[in-house]
């Protein structure tokens, strides 16, 4: 019974996979939106942190991953999943991510209605 290799079917391309903070499902990073914390260095505001979309995966720092889906966004918001994933306590402003998701989601819905 010597088995040097455990083969579970050949998948030559291994895509990086992350977990969506909204629905907790794993998905390729290409299907997810990366979000990062952008701390406002200025005056204290009503929010401790601002979370911004990082569509090009270039911003430094700890990121969280989310489907471009309003349901996932709202689930993440309700469960305070952003705070946990990004390790930030306190109130988080996700309006920038919200706006980004709205912009990305709406064209799809328009297309669906045309068909
Ligand atoms: Zn999701």
From TrEMBL:
PANTHER family: BLL0784 PROTEIN, YLXR DOMAIN-CONTAINING PROTEIN. Residues 18-89 form the YlxR domain. InterPro entries: YlxR, YlxR-like_sf, YlxR_dom. Gene3D superfamilies: YlxR-like. The lineage of its organism: Bacteria, Bacillati, Actinomycetota, Actinomycetes, Mycobacteriales. Pfam families: YlxR (PF04296). This is YlxR family protein.
